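Lab meeting, item 3. Inverse folding demo.
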């Protein structure tokens, strides 16, 4: 059994590349139907927010649909 000679503060760091655990983690608990419904509603709310912001934002940014600002002359400048 060969030991490393590099200075390391802890012995387990030097042997970490060889360590293999034989203990498997416990399986994740399954989500309940109410948790699935809640996650779905949150996801749909976020997607609806993005779609709504696009629906209101894109027409507001479109310079072709709005006429350019026209200079209005007052009646005083007509010379009447």
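The presenter then showed the designed sequence:
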């Amino acid at each position: 059994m060969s030991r490393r000679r590099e200075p390391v503060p802890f012995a387990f760091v030097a042997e970490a590349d060889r360590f293999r655990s034989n203990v498997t983690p416990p399986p994740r608990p399954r989500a309940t139907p109410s948790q699935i419904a809640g996650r779905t509603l949150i996801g749909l709310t976020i997607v609806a927010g993005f779609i709504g912001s696009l629906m209101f934002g894109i027409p507001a940014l479109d310079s072709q649909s709005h006429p350019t600002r026209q200079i209005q002359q007052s009646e005083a400048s007509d010379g009447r």
